[in-house]
Amino acid sequence: MNGVYDSNPADRLCCRHGCPQKLFRPLSIWENSCIKALFSGTMVIMKVLVAMSGGVDSSVAAALLSQAGHEVVGATMRLWGGASDSGCCQVSDVIDARRVCDSLGAEHLVFDMTEEFERAVVDNFSESHRLGLTPNPCVECNRHLKFKEFLTKAERLGFDAIATGHHVRLGIDETTGETLLLRGADRKKDQSYVLSVLSQEMLAKCLFPIGEMTKEEVRLYASKMDLRTAAKPDSQDLCFISSRNALSGRGAFLRERIDFHKAALLEENTDTELGEVEAMELLTVGQRRGLSFSAGVRKYVTRIDIDKRKVFVGNEEDLLVDEVELREKTFTSSSLVSGRNVQVQVSAHGKARQARVSDKGIVFEAKSRRVAPGQIVAIYEDDRVLGSGIAC
Amino acid sequence: MNGRETQSIGDGGGKRIYFDHCATTPMYGEVRELLIARLCDDFKNPSGLYRSSRSLRRTLDDAREKLAKEFCCQDTDIIFTSGGTESDNAAIRGLAGSNGPPGDGEFPAVIVSGVEHEAVLKPAQFLGASVIGTLPDGTADLNHLEDLLKVRKRNNAGLRLVSMMAVNNETGVIQPVPEAVALVKSYYPDAFVHSDCVQAFSSVDISKIAAGADALSFSAHKFGGPIGVGALVVKKEARKTFMPLMRGGQQENGYRAGTENLPAILGMAEAAFICGLKKPTETKRLRLLAERLDAGLKSISTHISLVGANSVKVPQIMLLHIPGAAGDELCYLLDLEGVEVSTGSACAAGAREPSHVLTAMGWDKKRAKQVIRVSLGRTNTEAEVDAFLTKLRKVLGGLTF
Hints:
The structure holds two protein chains of two kinds. Chain A is an alpha/beta fold. Helices cover 26% and strands 26% of the residues of chain A. In chain B, α1 packs antiparallel against α9 (262-300), α3 (84-95) runs parallel beside α4 and α5 (142-154) packs parallel to α6 (177-187). By secondary structure, chain B is α/β, with parallel strands linked by helices. Chain B has two domains: 17-26 and 279-398, Aspartate Aminotransferase, domain 1 (Alpha-Beta Complex), CATH 3.90.1150; 29-273, Type I PLP-dependent aspartate aminotransferase-like (Major domain) (Aspartate Aminotransferase, domain 2), CATH 3.40.640.10. In chain B, the strands form three sheets. Chain B has a seven-stranded mixed beta sheet, sandwiched between helices. Chain B is globular, with a radius of gyration of 22 Å. The chains are: A alpha/beta, B alpha/beta. The interface between A and B is medium-sized, with 28 and 28 residues.
């Protein structure tokens, strides 16, 4: 196959790695060490534990590192022990990951992390809904499982670093020496939002080998390397919710874990009672669909008062706010300081909005829609992740 | 691509130490030779009508007789199978006399112990079986079994089958099978008792168990025979109602259809004979090795404990609880050092799950993951035990728990 890497080798270089790294951008610690090693004649071989879901991205991440000469061991985390049809944590995924490792001559391990996942992700998901919040389970999984439990395990097992198949890049701030977490080269696939909970300590031990590639390039590389996951579809849904229909699946999933309560539906400004909702725990601030009343105009959920069992709805302008208070802040970079002009993103692939960092959280440059409490607000300076917090 | 050799990670250097004889144990040299010879020659089907087939039929019958002596049963009791899992499945499903869970208000046809191998547990669960409680020392609770029997009796409910393994494959704890047989027969004289002897044959005298139980399971590769062959012993009375798992042929008197795997069966018979012959001396030798290992463990850390230490157990199966350590991580690190041990059970995906045996003993899931299983066998030596202790000390020293 005459792929991108055959036809265009000149603009892609990373020492002897052969991995598709573009030049003229900040280099990651890893790349710096590689280049130094290249010029000093001592290639730094690292022992890397690659988190492999059985998908194409992590397969290529492992392949790139292996090709680069690193000692690679693949590991699949078994996270969810219950039923799922979303294509995650299935035996077939483990087989895919194992066979990719086999083809790379790498060992493959499987870790049972179902209990940790249940505690840190599923319980948090249920509890958040009980409190009327809108959780980000994928972010919590990254925070507690992939970049904490998994990373700690890797350290205990003597690995120098872990790698994942996330679409993000690393760089280095020449003045401060800080590791930079940057958006992935493929903007459509950029996963910096779900990794905005990583700290400097975590980043120092992480590699994201495919961050410079587009999804097409990843698939092309996988295909060129004859990896069995080359054409595997991307996983989309929450791995622990068993349904093609996310809403009904979420409801059915939560019904087994928390009690649902009816709530009065009130007009935001007038307190006029408009009707009733069956399960206020399933509603999200900003939600428009699924409200069982006809008002003639579009109405959005503006507030959920769990204690008083009231759900308020209003027009789009009723949702607009100036600022968002944040809790459980992560400082990915020390430059996340009050007064700094930044951009914020409130969903995985949402549009970034201009804002300013305040003591309590962030202040929008122009009034913006209220962020559903519980959602992660990721803070950027251009491509660089500065940190994040959970919307109050 | 794919031209790369396996990486340097994990070769451990030097000769590897195999301490996982419960998983499988190497074939005896004699068995290997016999197997190779039989695979190369004698390709005929023992059911053929010509003299060369009849000759093979005779060797098959000879093997059956030879095995009957070792398995303490009649030759006609033996049904050859593909191994322990098939034997267990065939016993449960063949003797339970039902095809599914009981209806509302009915009692299940089967009672099993909570520490059974999944090859018994899963088919039993499929039939909705009652489960005998497990004492904290790893033995089945006979008082609970009696309670289960009494409740049934009081409700005029029947009972078809009770299954209790002879030696637990994770802890090495010897289960009270003869006592269970006596108890079951005192309440239900017509009920059958099955005992999974897969792990027991190489380590204990099974004659007492075989004298009482109506069905017994065996697997050749656990006692020096080939993988993929085993036997289910079903006594005459139990055979009257036995429902075969495999149908479609008259082999094994119609109890297990399918052309007999003659080379493997002959290998199993030879292995059982050798194992039986060596059992008394080998048991003593392994006891000494296990004691050496146990003493060494105490010198490494007083926190390491042997699961089931206060119960009657076979010494060579040692489940070690190492507080604070994750079993799967220890296995990985020991593997890097060239030592092969296990953690216990695994799920289909290959992840190490908390052992159902330990949870049955009342352990919580977190604690149940802090174990490794060391199982010694005939190839192991004192030098290997000492080397293992050195490597374990090194691995534990490098971990910060």
